[in-house]
From TrEMBL:
<dbReference type="InterPro" id="IPR036824">
    <property type="entry name" value="Nucleoplasmin_core_dom_sf"/>
</dbReference>
<dbReference type="InterPro" id="IPR024057">
    <property type="entry name" value="Nucleoplasmin_core_dom"/>
</dbReference>
<feature type="domain" description="Nucleoplasmin core">
    <location>
        <begin position="7"/>
        <end position="75"/>
    </location>
</feature>
<dbReference type="Pfam" id="PF03066">
    <property type="entry name" value="Nucleoplasmin"/>
</dbReference>
<protein>
    <recommendedName>
        <fullName>Nucleoplasmin core domain-containing protein</fullName>
    </recommendedName>
</protein>
């Protein structure tokens, strides 16, 4: 998750709080990540929160909200070397020599 953005103006005295339910090695945990109120002049919080394990549930824990959550979904994979990697490197070297 990279940003948490409150879209509408808060009602006087209302506090809006965003939260994330994520998995840990012990199980599920709920983490508050952003809080906005009328007194707050900035309606966006820049966050850098990675969540390596799924599922992850984003919700408004308090208030009436209308919030936008911005982030990226990355899928990590391990890179396995090619069986013919040496051949690929040799071809690249030959191409570079041919250009000179």
């Amino acid at each position: 998750m990279s940003s948490f953005l409150l879209v509408h103006k808060d009602v006087e005295g209302e506090v809006n709080g965003g939260q994330v339910e994520a998995m840990t090695w012990k199980g599920s945990v709920i983490i508050p990540v952003a809080t906005f109120s009328v007194a707050c002049t900035n309606n966006q919080m820049i966050l850098d929160l990675p969540f390596p394990d799924s599922p992850v549930i984003f919700s408004l824990g308090q208030g009436n909200g209308l919030v936008h959550i911005i982030g990226n979904h990355f899928i990590c994979t391990s890179m396995e070397p090619f069986d013919d990697m040496d051949e690929v490197i040799d071809e690249m070297d030959e191409d570079e020599q041919g250009e000179e």
